[in-house]
Specification:
The complex is a heterotrimer of chains A (232), B (227) and C (228). With 232 residues, chain A is of the alpha/beta class. Chain A has seven helices and nine strands; from the N terminus they run E-E-E-H-E-H-E-H-H-H-E-H-E-E-E-H. The longest helix of chain C has 44 residues. The radius of gyration of chain C is 20 Å and the shape is globular. Classes of the chains: A alpha/beta (232), B mainly alpha (227), C mainly alpha (228).
Chain lengths: 232, 227, 228
């Protein structure tokens, strides 16, 4: 479960987010759509606790427990269009580095498990700059999931992927969903990864313009709603 | 405490491993600093007597010029692939990133010093009149001061356009006290003055080190803030 | 609401009166110094400029802390404006100092601790302004500038200490100070100090106004561009 309550953020005199509240219960997959500059990635960074909101708060997981930001960050994994990987380090070293930052015990077994999952076991000790785009993408997914987070945040994850990469990532998302992970995806695409989405938020000018379930929603309907909400 | 230290060493090790593997800055730094040494010796053709006067300044200037090259790389590596965002999404605190990076930069600079220092003695035919041990201490604490401020300000300039050119311009004025103190102390050791004659300089360096250890710890959060 | 414009008027008025008084005192009233002659009058501009420069940089320091604490735009504007005024007055110190030095000691520049510190100070706040201007309108840069405004100010006393020790270890060529001013000179100096302080606040307000207008224009422009 992840929840943002009354979140506002301004840069100078620009209101990037105006009093936004979102709640994603456990196991739900929500997509956030919106034009450039609508505040999508700002919202994602705030939910990921990377950026601080001017007002409002973020709740992750069981709110009865008092958690430090550090502990909360352990519950979040981010998959982005950037890989967050160091080219000079090997796949193993990259995962080890982030695993240590998460303060994980029993790291080695975890690395092997997650690297097997993305099918990179043979490339484990290769430096990342030798990787193809597809391998890089798989490793960056492994990086995001190394600490087995409850909440997965995706920042335009389909940007720059070829067809093969798209279907791979879609498979990963389906997998995560069947494991009851809470997922929020910021995107500008109407198709990629939309198959498993439960709910769509449309963000415009820093506010939530629409919030609706995807059940029985046709892709033409989605486009129509989007243009209605964003055009005005 | 142990956990915090583990995070700092994680950053430290990562930086050193990727640096020594890519050999980007260390090799450039060593080459550059030797080059300065050679060019200066051609430019000034120092006589035996003047060598003692100009060499301490020359040593420190060449260290700082080559050190700048390494400092500029520190955060460039984190911007590539947006790794910094990745780091900031983990539980690590900004000051831990700073300390890890400062430690790694220090090791790189000391590595450069270990290689170039003997060369100074060879090229300039120098014989040290004071104690080598004290000289090493001065080199060490002077380098610490430089790296502490440098690592901090490199984080600042890495956010700006034209950052590589900007770093020396904003760094050098702040470095003036530690640079001056280190040069004076080094020169005193070269000429074999007694310790109490240059002890104030060593104290000044230590005070500087302490202040610029504390200030970044207080302010580094603001440099790592993401909009 | 009416109070602030009124205060501004009082400030501008008293600066004007005090400026005229100061000019009269410096050029008409105070006797010409015997040893150095008219060139000694630089003293009445040099010392107050140095004072204003330090005051300005102290304001940068305080406003920077306030900006980081509160994120209120006005503190950033105060800090930036004060730094501009401070750099100008530091430049005046650096120009008048050598002219004085040439007449008094026969040399343009000496590495006197105060002069050295002032020079370094000038570089530090020039760097501050470069940071602040390197991407206008980007809020992050104001934060970076504020961090530098704090750390730069902390550095100043250490710079001064280093410069002083440096000069005591090397032979001191010139005794810089003439302690014990006659009363007429002291009065003139005091009036000049007051005038320059008032002038600082006038310039600070003007500079802030310019910055605020610039930001307003910038916002209007980007609003207008959005329409396309």
């Amino acid at each position: 479960m992840i929840e943002g309550i009354n979140i506002s953020k301004t840069y100078g005199s620009k209101n990037v987010l105006r009093d936004i509240s979102v709640r994603i219960p456990m196991g739900e997959f929500v997509a956030v759509l919106g034009p450039n500059g609508a505040g999508k990635s700002t919202l994602l960074k705030i939910l990921a606790l990377i950026s601080k909101p001017d007002s409002g708060q973020v709740i992750i997981g069981d709110q009865s427990l008092i958690n430090t930001p550090g502990e909360l960050k352990r519950k979040i994994g981010i998959i982005s269009h950037s890989s967050f990987l160091y080219p000079e380090l090997t796949a193993y070293e990259n995962l080890q580095f982030f695993g240590r930052l998460y303060g994980m015990d029993n790291l080695e077994a975890q690395i092997i498990a997650v690297i097997k999952k993305v099918g990179l076991l043979l490339a484990l000790n290769e430096q990342v700059y030798t990787f193809s785009r597809g391998m890089l993408q798989r490793l960056s997914i492994a990086r995001a999931l190394i600490h087995n987070p409850e909440v997965i945040l995706l920042d335009e994850p389909f940007t720059g992927l070829d067809q093969h990469g798209i279907s791979l990532l879609q498979g990963v998302l389906r997998d995560l969903k069947s494991n009851h992970k809470t997922i929020l995806m910021v995107t500008h695409s109407f198709e990629d990864g939309m198959n498993d989405v439960d709910r769509i938020l449309i963000l415009n000018k820093g506010q939530i313009a629409a919030d609706f379930p995807t059940e029985n929603l046709l892709s033409e309907d989605l486009k129509r709603i989007y243009h209605e909400k964003v055009a005005c | 405490m142990g956990r915090e230290l583990a995070l700092i060493t994680t950053i430290f090790k990562k930086d050193l491993v990727s640096e020594f593997r890519a050999k980007e800055s260390v090799v450039t730094m060593v080459t550059f600093s030797v080059l300065i040494l050679v060019l200066f010796s051609m430019a000034f053709e120092p006589s035996r007597r003047t060598v003692e006067e100009i060499l301490p300044g020359l040593i420190w200037m060449s260290l700082i010029f080559s050190g700048i090259l390494g400092l500029n790389r520190t955060y460039a590596r984190e911007r590539f692939n947006d790794c910094l965002i990745g780091i900031l999404s983990t539980p690590i605190a900004p000051y831990q990133i700073y300390l890890g990076k400062a430690a790694s930069n220090l090791v790189q600079l000391l590595f450069v010093e270990i290689i170039t220092f003997p060369l100074y003695f060879i090229f300039y035919d120098l014989n040290l009149k004071g104690s080598l041990g004290i000289l090493i201490i001065i080199m060490l604490i002077g380098s610490v001061g430089f790296i502490l401020v440098g690592t901090f300000l490199a984080a600042l300039t890495s956010n700006l356009r034209a950052n590589e050119a900007l770093l020396p311009v904003i760094l050098f004025p702040l470095l003036m006290p530690v640079l001056l103190a280190a040069i004076e102390a080094t020169s005193a050791v070269f000429t074999g003055l007694s310790l109490d004659q240059y002890l104030p300089w060593i104290k000044l360096i230590l005070v500087y080190d302490l202040i610029f250890l504390v200030m970044p710890l207080l302010l580094f959060d603001y440099l790592m803030e993401v909009d | 609401m009416k109070l602030i414009p009124l205060l501004k008027k009082i400030l501008f008025g008293s600066t004007f009166v005090s400026m005229l008084t100061a000019l009269y005192l410096v050029f008409e009233w105070v006797p010409i110094e015997r040893q150095m002659g008219p060139v000694q009058k630089i003293f009445y501009f040099h010392v107050p400029s140095a004072w204003v420069a330090f005051l300005a940089f102290f304001v940068v320091f305080v406003a920077s802390i306030m900006y980081l604490k509160t994120k209120a735009e006005v503190y950033d504007i105060i800090a930036g404006s004060s730094a501009q005024v401070g750099v100008v007055f530091t430049a005046i110190v650096l120009i008048t100092g050598p002219i004085w030095g040439r007449a008094a000691w026969g040399t343009w520049w000496t590495w006197d601790p105060r002069l050295t510190t002032t020079l370094i100070l000038w570089f530090i706040y020039l760097a501050y302004l470069i940071i602040r201007n390197s991407a206008k309108g980007n809020e992050k840069n104001y934060r970076l500038a504020a961090v530098f405004g704090i750390i730069g100010f902390i550095d100043v006393p250490i710079v001064f200490m280093a410069a002083r020790w440096w000069r005591t270890i090397h032979p001191v060529v010139f005794e810089a100070d003439n302690i014990g001013l006659p009363p007429s000179m002291l009065i003139t100096l005091m009036v000049c100090l007051l005038t320059f302080t008032l002038l600082y606040f006038v310039l600070l307000l003007k500079s802030m106004k310019i910055e605020q207008v610039e930001r307003k224009i910038q916002n209007l422009k980007s609003e207008a561009l959005k329409a396309y």
